[in-house]
TrEMBL record:
Organism: Rhodobacter viridis
A Pfam family per the record: Hint_2
Listed name of the protein: Hint domain-containing protein
Residue span(s) of domain Hedgehog/Intein (Hint): 127-262
InterPro entries, per database record: Hedgehog/Intein_dom, Hint_dom_sf
Length: 322
């Protein structure tokens, strides 16, 4: 079940035009002029969104009074932008909800209004395989949702290595949260492959500074190439697969990454999943190196624009040699 962090409004202080009052036009007045902070010692709790298709599937969705784009007061980096929602429900009372863990005592300025309302948290940031994806194991292909710790997976570099942790969660699959579909054959896959937009797949550029080098790129960076598109759906079940070290594994016979638990990944994971992962690990998850160089999405998009030639989908973008 998707989860948000929540703080009661009594634990929030603000300066400038009141962003959390009921005065008409207060939202627009707060943008660029107001900032707020959680009181030192403010207690955070988790709230579940009733949209997982389970027992609470018929419960009404939580609709925010207003959703703000925020950023730490001292930051000018747009990458630090988060969304905070002002909600008021019988279960929570009036307060702030966010997919980010806001820090008590830190000031956040309001930089804009989020027009889309309550988005499914974490969904567009997840790094997962869609349930039903067949993963190569010592005993043959196995649906990713049926994997368990210690299952031996075939890796590209290190023979068979055990699964360390498996996480599952079900969220909406529309917009930026829609799965990315690779048609059969695009990555050497036997069947259509569905992964989250942030999930990285292995390619080998044929031109440019990375020619001949195997690299990992986010699936969303390849959307728009022949055979690669978003596949919107009402609900999608995502499955995280983590191994003792970051590995390239085989999903529908295509090469893709296992979960790399870096700081950013842990921050955008659904909080209860992140907590379960931390509890299952006996080592620091942030010390491992990636199995291949990771190419940022903007650089991949630039390569695609510069190197469209050849015949097969990724060859036409200068991104893969058969």
């Amino acid at each position: 079940m998707p989860t948000l962090c929540f703080w009661p409004l009594t634990d929030v202080t603000s300066a400038g035009p009141d962003p959390f009052g009921s005065v008409p036009g207060a939202e627009e007045a707060a943008v660029g002029r107001a900032h707020f902070a959680l009181r030192p010692g403010a207690a955070m709790r988790f709230i579940d969104l009733p949209d997982d298709g389970g027992a609470e599937a018929d419960a009404p969705a939580i609709e925010p009074d207003v959703s703000y784009l925020i950023r730490p007061l001292a930051s000018e980096d747009v990458a630090d932008t988060a969304v905070v929602h002002l909600i008021d429900t019988p279960a929570t009372g009036r307060g702030l909800a966010s997919s980010e863990r806001l820090k008590p005592g830190r000031a956040y300025r309001i930089t804009g209004l989020e027009a889309e309302g309550m988005l499914t948290p974490f969904a567009s940031q997840s790094i997962c395989f869609a349930a039903g994806t067949l993963i190569a194991t010592r005993r043959g292909p196995k649906p990713v949702e049926e994997l368990t710790p210690e299952d031996p997976l075939q890796t590209s570099d290190n023979g068979y290595r055990p699964v360390q942790w498996v996480g599952r969660w079900r969220v909406g699959g529309l917009g930026a949260a829609a799965p990315v579909r690779f048609a059969p054959g695009v990555l050497g896959n036997d069947r259509a492959l569905f992964v989250s937009g942030q999930h990285r797949v292995l390619i080998r550029p044929t031109t440019g500074p990375l020619a001949g080098e195997e690299v990992l790129v986010a699936a969303k960076a390849l959307v728009g190439l022949p055979g690669i598109a978003r596949a919107p759906c009402e609900r999608v079940e995502w499955v995280h697969v983590m191994m003792p070290t970051h590995e390239v594994i085989f999903a529908e016979s295509a090469r893709a990454e296992s979960m790399l638990a870096g700081h950013k990944t842990m921050m955008v994971m659904e909080p209860t999943q992140a907590k379960a992962l931390r509890q299952s690990l006996s080592h620091d998850p942030f010390t491992g190196l990636p199995a291949r160089p990771i190419v940022p999405t903007p650089k991949v998009e630039k390569l695609i624009l510069q190197h469209r030639r050849g015949h097969t989908p990724l060859e036409s973008a200068g991104l893969m040699r058969r």
